[in-house]
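Any chance you'd type out a single protein's sequence alongside its tokenized fold?
>
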Amino acid sequence: MNAAGARRAVCNAGRGPGMPHRVMFVCAMNVCRSPLMAFVFADALSTGSDPAGWTVTSRGTSVLREDPMCGVSASLIAGSEAGRVFIDAHASRPLVPDELDSQDVILVASRAERSKVAQLNPSLRSRTFTVREALALGSPPVTAAELDLMDRSQAPEGGTRLGGYTQLLHQRRGTVPVAAAPRRLPWSLRTPANPADIPDVHHKNQPKHLGMLKAVQGDVRNLHDQLRGYMAARSGV
């Protein structure tokens, strides 16, 4: 992604003619996980497909003031001019109800943020997923029966958002397994992380923090590839 593309990614990546596809990434403070996810997704759009017609934003459920991007997260994208432009322009922004309904998909770091979105607008459950939940739900090949169900069902959004991608993920809930959380050992005081979540390790030691964020980069690139592959197949490209 070039510098101009990075500027668009900061405050609504690449608008093309007509209605853009709108993707929002959400974490708690909008300084670490969600801005990194937004940049990686927008960067993948610019290198793997046409970024025109896409809007990519990030928000936080617990933002109280404008803060810059976390230094550890920023270090992963600072090697490119586009990354540096994005870092310089980023200021954390709170999640507000008025922005939610226009999003085609809301991708959150964890179930905590998913719950917050549901509290703000319960009707958005069918468009809100954790990143890792979306990856799991979208992993199996699409069947003819699923396509038929999507075409016959009268979803509120008419099945047209992202070519019906969110409708597919939502109708697979409860039928496609998402890895279950490991059980806590009787002698352990720690609750194991749920595999559907990208946990907040912002205040953990740097190796753990960095390792988690590198995993996030891979997850988001895989999600981009999954979504774009699905949309290409649906459009016959």
Q: What stands out?
A: Residues 126 and 170 are 5 Å apart (CA to CA). Residues 7-17 have pLDDT under 50 and may be disordered. The chain has ten helices and four strands. The domain at 3-235 is CATH 3.40.50.2300 (Rossmann fold).
